[in-house]
Amino acid sequence: MIESLPQMIRRSPRLACGFLIWLAAFAAVYALLCWAPAIYDDQSYIFKNPLVLGSWPGLKAFFLRGAPGYEPLPLLGHWLLHRLVADRVIFYRLTSLLLHGANALLLWRVYRRFLGNDEFSLWAAALFSLFPAHVEALALSTFKTHLAVAFCAFLIIYLQARAGSRLRTAGCWAAMLAAVFCKESALVLPALAWLTVPPGRKNTRPVLLGLVAIAAAYAALRLVWIPLQVQAAPAGAWTGRLLTAAKLSLWYLRQMLWPDGLCLEHSLTPVLSWRDPQALPLLATAGAVLFLTYKIYRWDRVAGIGLAWAAIALCPFLNLIPYFNYSLVADRYMYLASAGFFLCVGRLAARLSQARPGLKSLIALGLGALAACYCSLGLRQAARFCDPLELWSDAARCAPTNPRAHAALGAECSARGHYAQSVAELRLATELDPAYADPYLDLSVAYTRMGRLEDSLAAARQRVALRPDAAGWLNLGASLMEAGLDEEALVPLKRAAAMNPDDPDATLDLGLCWLDLRRWDDALPLLERAARAPRAAARAWAGLGDLWAGKGDIRRSIACYEGALTRDNAQFTVVHKLARQYLALGDTDKAQGLYDAALSRLDKTLATLRANPAAADPQTSAFALKLRAQLSAGRNKIVRSAGR
Question: Options 1.20.120.550, 2.30.130.10, 1.25.40.10, 1.10.10.10; which CATH number does 402-491 get?
């Protein structure tokens, strides 16, 4: 019988100390991720997803709607989490870290059954939990799917070893059902469960049959009732697929042996045929690895099970069924597979220490050194996720031919005001793949910030031509408004609002367009609705201020402008408008105080830019100086008119 954690701690103070060190290392490595901003898939799949942001759409919207990456349970979980914590990213990170911690503890229990050695089970579980490649799965809440599938897999392996009661059998089936609705890679779990059946246990047959039945039913559901909306890549010959799968398998094996070159994007290319120069060396290496795996299995069955576990878990990510993706490999795909790899590592270490008892301390020291290296690499990778500019710059270096890496880097540069660099990266992304729609949206925004309105409109129209979704129509409408074409902007803005009625940005921009056309009654309800959404509140309150100022209601406009500055005090155009309203009431002191506060904030920004000129974009500095000149002119005009 396996001891519980408190029993083991009371029996062995040394293991208790090791457990505490493990917890401290886990917290030290991953705590940084709680402050990492939302990037990459988190933006589109969570924080800009109508299903997550909107009101309750009903279960059918989650389970019966085909979409790229059919993952209804995580999506439902994010809808609930958004109701509880809104856009506070730290809570999305914490849920991933808690799930990863639960996985490590559950895997520790699984390892103890396989290894029969508490100390090396603890080492193997600690190495799994600190493996640097897992930082990617923890840094983005969207990738929680990999953590959830792994949890279900570990639970099935743990419960089936203690099978015999209907409750445990039902628990295995429930875990399988949850796993397939988290990510389709869970279809390999029946094979993984069969591989890890304890020797001589015949009462696990109902468990395995139930897992296979659930997998078959899910496959039928996806093929018949729920449409598959995955952009397939050219299928190619089976020889090319198998050779590519071998290449990817060797890449993953090398990363598990030493996780160097961790990156959010990679540039691995497929092997197309036997005539490819990579084919023969690849086959020779793959053959040598298979022979070594066979010898390890013959020498130690548990170590062989660990390697087979890793191979089975990687099968969904070897591009055997081709699908379109700029990166054929990803660090997060190793999550479940690495658990099998570390089972092999723990078993080999335990066998070696049994064969050579005098080496036990040296083996433990080596495992400790490996864990320390993992902590160092993991901390460095976690720090990258805290700085998206560094993260995407690194990704563009790792994958120079990957359009998505350059597009994301360009978007981040644009967000920081580095518009010239942004345009260069975004244009490179469109040159690498002219059919890639995402860069055109950010390119349109960057051109607008640079004052190149014709280029902005051209990029916005190209985005809609490639992908006519709500984001594209919204961007086109905003670009037309910037160009002063408000009447023309109404059509795309109405389409964006109709396609995504819960998006506050679409509601706000349509309201502002009506406002520019002086259609007060059409603008008012839209601006009031947008003002209730935190993301759009500052601009919406400013728009309401303009509306009441246009209607001649000075006091209402003042209240709205003050509300806008309370939510975002960097809206310097609102400062001018509010100052004019104060002057209309004869309150020059308030108007001057408003300018003084704005100048003080802007001077701090300029001081920061001067302190770090290498990181400051010249256009940003020039724009800040222009704003300061405008604010100073407004303040001086008040002083002169007051005779001060």
Answer: 1.25.40.10
